[in-house]
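tool_log.txt
---
The assistant was asked to compare two proteins side by side. It first ran the structure predictor on the initial sequence, then on the second. Raw inputs and outputs are pasted verbatim so the downstream comparison step can read them without reformatting.
(1)
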Amino acid sequence: MAVDIKSLNHNQLNDLISKAQQRQQELRKEKVAKLREKIHALIKAEGYAFEDIFGGRSKGRRSGGTVAPKYRNPANPEQTWSGRGKRPRWFNDALKAGKKEKDLAI
């Protein structure tokens, strides 16, 4: 399939580039899937499981347990925050009221 790129306008050229990049990604995914199948077949042929070779690692997040709280709500000492993730409403309200982060630190 020969495409005369000199006859294409700007939009047509961008469309061609986009389609070529999508096709390149599809080909890469297909190649990776075939390689993965070959690796699993080789491991199985040798009498092992994937976990025996590469361990029981999961691709998801690690659950590292709980994190100690860094901040405490002065109005309600039961409310704490570790400093990770989205700020709790009470923390934002305290900042708006003129408190500083160090004032809320445990």
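(2)
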Amino acid sequence: MNLFSSIAKLPLVALGFVAFMLPAQAQNLGDMTKDDLSALIEQIVDEKIENLLADTPKASAAQGRFGNAVEDYLMSNPQLLERMSVALQTQAQEAEIAQTRDTLMALGDRVHNDADQVVLGNPDGDVTIVEFFDYNCGYCRQAVANMMQLLEEDKNVRFILREFPILSQGSADAARVATIVNRNKDVSYMEFHTKLFQSRGQVDKARALEVAAELGMNPVEVELQMQDQSVTQAIGRTYQLADALSISSTPNYIIGNEVVRGAESFEGLKRRVDNMRECGETTCP
């Protein structure tokens, strides 16, 4: 397969991009004028699009006559394909960001106000961070330290934790116990949270019940409550939120009208918070 054939199979946006860029650089293609080469490329692109839509192969006389010239040109100017690839990637990222913002707007109050969410820091803070986590996520373990440092240094951040168990049955059981712990106002959820992340090995139901007992809760009663429908619904609401935002890993964050995917260092979180205050976005121009 030659390079011309490969180009013909690029997405339609890519084909249009080549057709747009190539003629402007075409001084070295013999006696062809820029207008001639532009018309040729547009003809080839139109035929390829027609073939794709009709799903029937058609011979292209123009491709047969001038395909080698186009291929030679692109081989001599590979930076054009690289620039096209970067442009397409940027376009896709911008589309994803726009879609996420529309989704967050549609979700409205469900993002920051759920009866079973955990709220740490300043409940009236001027910047809110929502973290999706799993007790068996290694990156989430470091995220606890970053969160605690941020809350210690910045007294005007509202930090919301959402139980998002996706890695194992043990994670799901621990999330159920954590939901019950959070409902008990006589127990420190933050202490429970940090103790679980300090555990060696996998976090499971036994370990979660053990920590709950250390904090003064009756493990038998907690285990009986684990299958309560309201607990299932609480975790289910987080799953629904994550699904709407295409969140499928941990940790992930919602900051302002953006989803920050993947682990963030303390410095990264702090910078995003500062940017939110400065320009209303996690990244300022």
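---
observation on (2): Residues 1-29 have pLDDT under 50 and may be disordered. The chain has twelve helices and five strands.
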